[in-house]
Design brief:
The structure holds 2 protein chains of 2 kinds. Helices cover 24% and strands 18% of the residues of chain A. By secondary structure, chain A is of the alpha+beta class. In chain A, the strands form 4 sheets. Chain A has a 4-stranded mixed sheet. In chain A, strands 2-3 form a two-stranded antiparallel ribbon. A two-stranded antiparallel sheet of chain A has the order 4-5. Chain B is mainly α. The chains are: A alpha+beta, B mainly alpha. The interface between A and B is large, with 50 and 50 residues.
Chain lengths: 243, 413
Amino acid sequence: MPVLLQVENMILRMHEDLDRALKKPMHERHWGMAIDLLKCVGCNACTIACKSENKTPPGVSYHVVIEEEIGRYPNVTRRFLPRPCQQCEHPPCTKVCPVNATYRRPDGIVIVNYDVCIGCRYCLAACPYGARSFDFGDFYTAGQTPTVAAYDTAPAYEYGRKHSRTPDRRNESPIGNARKCTFCLHRLEAGMLPACISTCIGGARIFGDLNDPESLVAQAASSPRVMRLKEELGTEPSVYYLL
Amino acid sequence: MRKRLWLLLGIGILAVLAGSVGMVDRIRYGLLHVGYGSPVPWALWVVFYIYFIGLSAGAFLISSLVYVFGMKRFEPVGRIAVFTALIALLTALLFIWVDLGHMERFAEVFFRPDFESPLAWIVWLYTAYLVLLLAEAWFLMRRSFARGASGQGFKSRLYRVLALGTKDGSHEAEERDLRVVRVLGAIGVPLAIAFHGGTGTVFAVTIARAYWYSGLFPLLFLVSALASGGALLTAVAAFVIPNGYQKNKETVLALGRLLLGLIFIEVLMEVAEFLVSLYGTAPSHFVPIHEQLFGPNWWIFWVLGLGFAVGIPSVLLVTVGRRSGLATGLAALISVVGFVGIRWNIVLPGFATAELPGIETAFIEPHLNYIARYVPTAMEWLVSVFAIGIAFILFALGVGLLPLEREAEGAAG
């Protein structure tokens, strides 16, 4: 079967998994991700999809693809490691928050309450994966071009709420807050896959309910090729990498 | 007020005026113009925050030598130690307040604290400590307020207010108050150890940063606090109290010897930390130390830390400082300045290695740049100057107006 069709099937399959998971009570599902590093081509479509979905400003990137060069010329290869938030089961970032503004939901997603976060950045210091960014109030075009581009002030819909950022209100949330990947929670709740999953051209990313043995992600996570980042820290990430 | 206090006040006012440019920017644009970013989320203001918190804890613990442990030799600096601790605490809190992304939300730590976070703990402990310091300072001075309240001038009117109704200015009453002070001080000692050890714990529990993640860290904080606070107090005793280094020579020399001992313990702990971390090959342990020693900011370790905080003061203290109050005071002053470098090297090397190898080049944008070395911006410096200016003003006013030197028996009336 041609590869393209396989990818298509995967997306449909993950949508079925998603629908099944959403019918369960929140605490019975555990959102997780698996990323097949053999299939990742390092195109950064996931990073871009995340940027455009969450309208993240300069300096805030929920997702990055780490590139590593292996070997010496002329025998060189590259390895890619996409890094969303690992949505740890024991997140070091939530524990240190002095005001409980960031916490892990029963479905496994670590979120930030923008209305409470005081902006101390302790969670940034505490995250072993560099998965958190602070919103310093930067804009791509403010002060650079005669008018501020529409994409700079377009609202984001994180957490199912409309969040607008404008250059003349730099003290308003989410500016001044810690920000992070939410597995596109607002999309999940609308029955859609996270933006980085839908956009992956190589079909390298798998998403779903880890508590559902029938789901694609649960099957991937039980593969013997699986590893998680910095397991020795005991953070129990919900993101699995297939080597 | 005396000339040197006008000098302190003048410096303070100038600093506040200059620094207010930075404060206006800070209020208007939030944290937009800071040099740090997500890869280095804590920087200059956090350095000053732990510096001043350390000065406060150290000065307070040394005051307890007088009021709790009855070491009369340090009596001349007792009141001024408590006052110095108060000003240093307020300065530290100002620094950490301006560092918040949402300054207006600081009270959330009181309304909805999460005590799993050491940061919540220390804010509550700082608050308790602030109340305790105010109470202790008042009990130390209220008889002096009562005695000075009878005149007509501004100072007398101020004392009438501050006395809060206390009329009895007798020395018998003062002795009774000192018993209250003793109890307060005794509560304060574990409190100071807790909040400053706790400040170290904020860093020590971050499993993500191998440089901080060590049981040694809270202890290092305490030793550093005692050494830097001791140095500040020695300098204050020598130079802020009029003719201090001559009048209170014995006290200054004793403080100098204490300082020398504390510096020695500080060095011992740093050496232990450095040797163990440098021995292995794990970058998360090795790189932060190596960066301090040989990185672009090497001078912070070698000049400020080793030279100013530790080296020059030690040499002065074991030579001329053994007999000269002036030399001891100078040694202490140099050491206080140098400790800023030691504080810098507590915070910044924690971010010397990226969380995941390769993340440095994965995504580069303003405030998300692992490769650019952190350099404080003009705005950060100006805000720092503002905060330190406030400290100078409060300190000069306090020293000028408050009875921080205990009057000799029968001298008052």
